Amino acid sequence: MENIRLRKATSKDRAIVADFDYSLDKDEHIKLHRIEKITKAISNEECFLILIDKQEVGFVIFDYRFFDQGRIELIIIDEKYRRKGVGGKTFDIIREQSKSDKVFTSTNNSTTQMQRALTKANFTFAGKLYGLDEGGPEVFYYKNI
Length: 145
Hints:
By secondary structure, the chain is of the alpha+beta class. It is built from five helices and seven strands. The protein has helices at residues 14-24, 26-31, 34-43, 86-97, 112-120; strands spanning 4-8, 47-52, 55-66, 69-77, 102-108, 124-129, 138-144. α4 links the parallel β4 (69-77) and β5 (102-108). α1 (14-24) packs antiparallel against α3. It is globular, with a radius of gyration of 14 Å. The relative contact order is 0.15.
């Protein structure tokens, strides 16, 4: 997967981004009002489409609101492109373009697939935070630039 790149999402991409999220978990998409989060991230220029050549395969929301450090708030990759290095390459691109010393991200304790991807991409475990989600603690990771 050599031709992976990020492109800043625009308002014209809103439906594409929302479809990736909705197709992953429609109940969570609705319950968490993700369309509002996606719309806000696009308008704040914090949402990026993940492309292989010219094909959209997912998106990532990235900002600097976590103690002024880079933070991957949300990354969604189409199921047929998972376990093929797309996530790892996306992490690398974000790290290379980050304006901060570290990049943080988190996932629910039950999301073992994401935890494995972060470990494989050499992110370091930073700790767990209880009380954010009914599904268990949130697990935080970081990577130095």
